[in-house]
């Protein structure tokens, strides 16, 4: 965007010079004379237009290269800027007066007020002062707008970096914790059902293969995420047996949509982590489609004591979805149900 502004800046400078030249010549033509005998001729108007155009374009170039309002101005810098502006005004006024003086014989012939040199100097200086103030205001407004855009861009970059950092922290939490619980489950499985331990190890390797392969990706297809989730659910069911029920109804047409990796795994893990899962209170988790969202719902039966959580899982998901689409994650909490809705995304 900034490159585009730089490309059109010469055209803006020329249009600004034409505008100021038209104003100065037009105002001079209609502003001071009520008597038709004293109206300026075409030659005088052309001289005033040419002088206004040259000096406006010169002032634009000098001011836009000499001032940068995106940096903070301290007291000594304000004094320096004021002196620089005064010097620019004096120099441009001198050039302006010399241009008008070149055409003064024509103007004198038509009873111009420039007949006296002192009047010409005074008129030229004040005219240049107004022109330079006008251009300086444009420069200040432009720099202020660019500074705001740069600040927004910097904030967006910082936000993305923050999201990546939170996601990495989340992975560092999930992986060792989940591995520890899985190894404990594997130990119990070997002791009770050694024949089923091989499948458990295969599924566990599938889970970590997915994390290593897609953990750094921005998105994966819902089909890929679902295949990973099936391996993850297999491990959970070996741990909780019939106390945990996870129902998945995701029609085929929706499987081509994309999703941030590990999104569904985070929601399933949160459901198991924060709710009671026992024979007396089995936990039911349902994953389906509702309108334009992936709907993940679980029974709300909170534990009395929950492991310490940094509470960044859902927040990180919401940030990542807002970067990928114009929708964020929706959370619905009822008396006995807790739902999270993930927007369906088809193009990134």
TrEMBL record:
Domain of life of the native organism: Bacteria
An MF annotation (GO) of this entry: kinase activity
InterPro entries: Bact_2-comp_sensor_kinase (IPR050640), Sig_transdc_His_kin_internal (IPR010559)
Transmembrane segments: 12-30, 45-69, 81-103, 123-140
Segments forming domain Signal transduction histidine kinase internal region: 165-243
UniProt keywords, alphabetically: Kinase, Membrane, Transferase, Transmembrane, Transmembrane helix
The protein's name: Histidine kinase
Organism encoding this protein: Chitinophaga filiformis
């Amino acid at each position: 965007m900034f490159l585009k502004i730089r490309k059109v800046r010469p055209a803006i400078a020329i249009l600004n010079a034409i505008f100021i030249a038209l104003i100065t010549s037009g105002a001079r033509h209609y502003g001071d004379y009520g008597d038709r005998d004293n109206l300026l001729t075409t030659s005088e108007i052309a001289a005033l237009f040419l002088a206004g155009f040259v000096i406006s374009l010169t002032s634009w170039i000098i001011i836009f290269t000499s001032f940068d309002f995106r940096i903070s101005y301290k007291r000594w810098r304000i004094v320096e800027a004021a002196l620089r502006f005064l010097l620019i005004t004096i120099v441009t006024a001198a050039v302006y007066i010399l241009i008008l003086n070149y055409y003064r014989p024509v103007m004198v012939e038509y009873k111009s007020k420039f007949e006296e040199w002192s009047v010409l100097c005074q008129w030229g200086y004040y005219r240049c002062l107004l022109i330079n103030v006008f251009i300086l205001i444009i420069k200040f407004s432009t720099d202020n707008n660019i500074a705001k855009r740069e600040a927004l861009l910097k904030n967006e970059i910082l936000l993305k970096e923050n999201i990546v950092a939170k996601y990495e922290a989340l992975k560092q939490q999930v992986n060792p914790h989940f591995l520890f619980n899985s190894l404990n489950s594997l130990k119990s499985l070997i002791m009770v059902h050694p024949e089923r331990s091989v499948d458990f190890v295969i599924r566990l390797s599938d889970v970590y293969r997915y994390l290593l392969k897609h953990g750094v990706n921005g998105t994966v297809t819902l089909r890929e995420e679902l295949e990973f989730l099936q391996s993850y659910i297999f491990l959970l069911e070996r741990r909780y047996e019939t106390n945990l029920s996870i129902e998945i109804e995701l029609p085929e047409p929706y499987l081509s949509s994309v999703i941030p990796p590990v999104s569904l795994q985070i929601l399933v893990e949160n459901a198991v982590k924060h709710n009671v899962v026992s024979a007396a209170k089995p936990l039911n988790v349902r994953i389906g489609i509702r309108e334009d969202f992936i709907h993940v719902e679980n029974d709300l039966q909170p534990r009395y004591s929950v492991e310490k959580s940094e509470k960044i899982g859902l927040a990180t998901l919401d940030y990542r979805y807002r970067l990928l689409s114009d929708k964020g994650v929706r959370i619905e909490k009822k008396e006995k149900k807790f739902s999270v809705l993930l927007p369906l995304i088809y193009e990134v």
